[in-house]
Amino acid sequence: MRNRAYLREEKTAMERIEHKDGKCISGAAAPREVETDGRRDPETAPEAVQHPRQPMPEQPPQVRVGNFREVPFGLTPDLAILEATRCIQCKNPQCVKGCPVSVQIPEFIDLVAKGKFIEAARKIKETNALPAVCGRVCPQEEQCEMPCVLGKKGEPVAIGRLERFVADFERVTGNVEIQGSERRRASALPWSGRAPRG
Ligand code: SF4
After folding, report:
1. How far, in Å, from the CA of 33 to the mean position of ligand 1?
2. Mutational pocket test of ligand 1: of 41, 150, 152, 162, the residue with most ligand atoms within 8 Å of the beta carbon
3. d(CA 94, ligand 1 centre) in Å
4. Whose CA is closest to 49, among 150, 122, 138?
5. Ligand 1 nearest-atom number relative to CA 96
6. Which of 26, 130, 178, 181 is the most exposed place for a label (fewest CB within 10 A)?
């Protein structure tokens, strides 16, 4: 139901950016080339924080009073890249310690910054099978975003919004892939011809 309700909005957002094989090939905010093996220390790279946390587009109040759709639309590809470039790729990422499932946050954000949205979704799914849900309902302000080093002097990286974005991008572009343990659980379901264990 929700998917159908949002098809138009998501299609419009995705049309703003060209992509091929899950990789952004155009957009107002140019993907950065991040040197992931040379992570920067926040104390020595304060210049990396050049723009504010990006707000998530949402239905205006006068519109949302007349429907039951989800209020936020989610980040657009351009906004996601812009937000991802705020991450300074900490050597000792506190955000990961705040995540209950240890999502490799700097790595997935790095991929978003490069416009590699599908790869970013895959990176999250290495430890979290439900990024679209967690990106919406997890209390990021008390978990991964609370210890984000950028929050000490300003606003933390919008990790939850980025997580939601890549999960939605994966789905809208038809690139959802069942991975690892999910695939094993699915193959054990009754209709797969095998009885579940345990
Ligand atoms: S999200 Fe915050 S804490 Fe995590 S690597 Fe980026 S800047 Fe550092």
Report:
1. 17
2. 150
3. 7
4. 150
5. 4
6. 181
Give me the number of domains the chain comprises: 1
**94-113 tens-digit pLDDT:** 999 999 999 999 999 999 99
For residue 188, what pLDDT is reported?
53
Q: Which domain holds residue 145?
A: 2-176
Residues with a CB atom less than 6 Å from ligand 1:
87-90, 93-95, 105-106, 148-150, 156-157, 159
Does residue 196 form part of some domain?
no
Provide the mean pLDDT of the chain. Answer: 79
User: Distances in Å between the alpha carbon of 146 and those of 45, 91, 93, 143?
Assistant: 20, 17, 12, 6
Question: Is residue 87 situated within a structural domain?
Answer: yes
CB neighbours of 92 closer than 8 A, spacing ≥ 6? none
Predicted confidence (pLDDT) per residue in 37-94, tens digit: 445 554 545 445 578 999 999 999 999 999 999 999 999 999 999 999 999 999 999 9
